[in-house]
Amino acid sequence: MKNFNTIDQELAEKVQTVLVNTFPEGLPEGFSSSVVKTADARNGDYQCNDAMALAKALRKNPREIAGNLAAGLADPEMLSSVEVAGPGFINFRLNPAWVAKRLVDTDAHAARGTPAAGEGKTVVIDYSSPNVAKPMHIGHIRSTVIGNALDRLHRFCGYTVISDNHLGDWGTQFGLILLGYRHFLNADALAASPVQELERVYVESYQKSKEDESWLEAARQELVKLQQGDAENLALWEKFVTLSLGEFEKIYQRLDVRFDLHRGESFYNDDLPGVLARLESAGLLVESEGAQVVDLEEEKLGVCIVRKRDGGFNYATTDLATVFSRVREFKPETILYVTDERQQRHFKQFFTVCEKLGEAVSLQHVWFGLMRLPEGTFSTRQGNVIKLEVLLDEAERRALEMVKTSSPDMPEDQQREVARAVGIGALKYADLSQNPQSLVTFTWEKAMALDGNSAPYLQYAHARIRSVLDKHAAQFPEDDVAGAAPAAELPVEQVLGLKAVQFPEAVIGATRHYRPNYLADYLYELAQNYSTYHQSVPFLKSEDGVRESRMRLIRMVADTLKTGLGLLGIEAPERI
RNA sequence: GCCCCGGUAGCUCAGCUGGACAGAGCAGCGGACUUCUAAUCCGCAGGUCGCAGGUUCGAACCCUGCCCGGGGCGCCA
Fold it and tell me: Are A41 and A92 in contact (CB under 8 A)?
């Protein structure tokens, strides 16, 4: 299969070639040419700013460099103009005929012209990772939705992806849960809503431990028994895990999220002593205040505790074991961790330890801003959490209201199906369309926006095209759409065609920077361009020849929208 | 006290290795459905990019200081 290059990259390579020829004495150390999209279409489609940077380094006149460069870059087939402007900008305008051809070429390609940047590379993505015995709430949605988009994006770019749900299934809370389960359990409640009941007994047990020292001690004993493999506690623990996984799975199905692995912390339990031994033999282990730690003061990261004073291991130890195991088993180039911002220091710590141990893997913490409520942070103990299940229900309910008013003739089961895709899509898009690192304050209104820059806007554009295409197929069964060249006569068509052909740049950018919002922005612009087009020309009433070309163009736009939404984990129904 | 983020239009946010007069959505105002989905489109209005310096041909973006908000800082994860 043909391997495509993105347009900006293709132009940058042209520039590089000309530069190497123009400056046989060599370019500045570390210099590599770059071409970017213009901010303003009046300046062209792409621009190169290298002349200014080079002028400084080579002590030459930027306009002169730009002039020479522009002359060497002339390529009438691809570029309708190459012009020098301002202090030394080189502006490129693509030839609409070239764009149209490109469109056709990429249309035949499974990844719509996206380069296989990840060919031969493996990436492990660790995301979602809820705690066993606690219901998932709105705090989990960002990790799940962003992690899943990164998962899809990487696969699309040719990476081998191992998605792993690193469940919080092992830790001190289980002592309290075991005790609470034995004393406070309501069997009916457990049957009705297992995880909610498990959480309830945990909270009750936790509260009792606050006022009753002996209760806390008893919980510690239960934990020790569990860790030593006590059959009864182990069986209960397994039950907690199974029940929780079952409930999480319902949420994941609704969100269309699948994992390759569900390896919780407990999976690495037997490896923990080995981690310590390895640190020991690497000379990194130090005793401090009774605990075993790795000293990271030099890196200004404090100390990383790998064995507690009481002899127990903690999360840093588990995370190290997890890295070792993943590296051994999957040989990944990169491991991505998608969690909220609070864990930055922890990740820096154990990343540094891995580096000291010489682990040959790139560890990346993709963190996102913590979700807050308008009245402040939320927590289980304050009782102001919004459960994920409730959130999904509400999203679908609001979408259904809208579907019923806008498509009253649609059969009811289809209305529900559309409402599901639209409601869940809106929710996901709300998270994916902004910079992950910005703070987010949860509001129902924002999370479930159904107009403006929202998933339903994109889904609507897509469904409109499908509807036009279906009507066209019914009215003009003789038309050869597949054989028609995409329309590129009118300015609106050229704008739309160019946007469509830039899809790979958005995908690559989103993947490389771990920023799904780059793709979301792009798709929104594509849908906007389509909506303008839809408004300004007739389709079914356009003349023979023109009609097929327009169908060809919008069909490709629809496919691009659908593919792009798919990469964000959002469905694109045929009708909405 | 130290470290990490954020501060852009009334509100919610983009702004992709510094680039050409700062962009959307919502809300507001004015227009467009006897054509294919008006969940739409077109137009108007709205900003000292937290503040003050600095680097640069060029700064919302880089550096320094300060102000405000969020988070983190040894045995929770």
Answer: no
